[in-house]
Amino acid sequence: MTHYEVLGVRRNASTSEIRAAFRTLARAHHPDTSDAGSGESLAPINEAWRILGDPVLRRAYDRSLDDSTEPATNAPHRDPSPVYVVAPPESSFPWRFLAGMTVVGIAIVLFGVFTYQPSKPPPPDNLLQAGSCVIIEENGDASEVNCDTDHDGVVQSLVTTADQCPVELEPHRDRQGLGLVCIRFDV
Q: Do strands 141-145 and 170-174 pair parallel, antiparallel, or not at all (unpaired)?
């Protein structure tokens, strides 16, 4: 029995006619929708659709049917069912792309290294805190300066005017009058 006979269509039927016949038969013989359906009755229908639904497989199947209807000759016997060998898809890792992206990344890093210029430190905000570099003005007030310039000392702590600085630190008035700063002088 040919696949065309299984689906109940003519040999010159269109793909849409074959699809419609397959769907009708599949519904009728499917085990979930029919009491008479079983996996064994659905298998030839699925196989017929697999062959006839694919244009390449259908052409090969039609050729095999044509070969089997020719009169026997002294030619060697041909198997009516075509054998299809499908090679697995070749998978490869994109090494060239990865190498290219590595080179681009290295170039970006090197460009950044050679063009980097450190930014200037921000100007002092004149709010003294521990770690601020200061100069002592003529009137004895402490005024903040950048630490990369000449400075007299570094603020160790801030205290109120009622408190006193530790013995090893020298007290000076905050320029803004907010209290006393305890300064360690550079030696």
A: parallel
